[in-house]
Design brief:
The chain is an alpha/beta fold.
Amino acid sequence: MNNVIVVASGKGGTGKSTVCICLSVALVRQGKKVLLIDSDCGMRGLDIMLDIEQDILFDASDAVCGNCTVGEAVYKSKNNDNLYLMAAPFDAENELSPAVFRQLVDSVKNNFDYVIIDSPAGIGSGLVTAASPADSALIVTNAEPTSVRGGVKVRKRLESLGVSHMRLVINRFDKRVFKKLGFYADLDAVIDAAQTQLIAVVPFDINISVVMQRGAAGVESGASFSPFDRLAKRVEGQPCPLVLRGML
């Protein structure tokens, strides 16, 4: 994938922001320098999940309005060398236009190996802005019909915006619940319904949610986060299995 990646979902609650952070941490572990940009204006949360909420003085809107330099709106993760965050505006009315956001990202992207943009859920103006500078996209869904349908709508919206390179992340996959629900025969049926090529399956693991809410991404690791290491390798173009034995 190219180096400016928008991460999107049709519905809230898919774990999209968790995917953004865990993928970024995994890329840093592979020696990459990563900038996370939270573009969920009015509902930002990456600063909490990275435990730098109290450090944020300036956000993306401050940088473009001249209240600070662009560099002053970029904050280093306390726990992860080479991981940085630009926060979304705290107030929704300060949402950036697509043209302004694209200029902002273009001004910083050459300083990083990857820019990961956390888009607000849905297909509205927030997605349009978040996708404006993106070379490629990750669409995050859960293995259930409402989430998959939302993912299809996101795919079509991204296509209309000129984003052609898209991959699917099936997040919070629980084999027992999946089989009990019985909506799909198998994961291949989910992929077919999502109309997007699969790049990763992340099993449900309560430990991931706990670490995110504690702001301990990159501090606490282990087997729970190995799916994101595989995702990072595939983003890098390295051969790596999509699904581990026993997941299905």
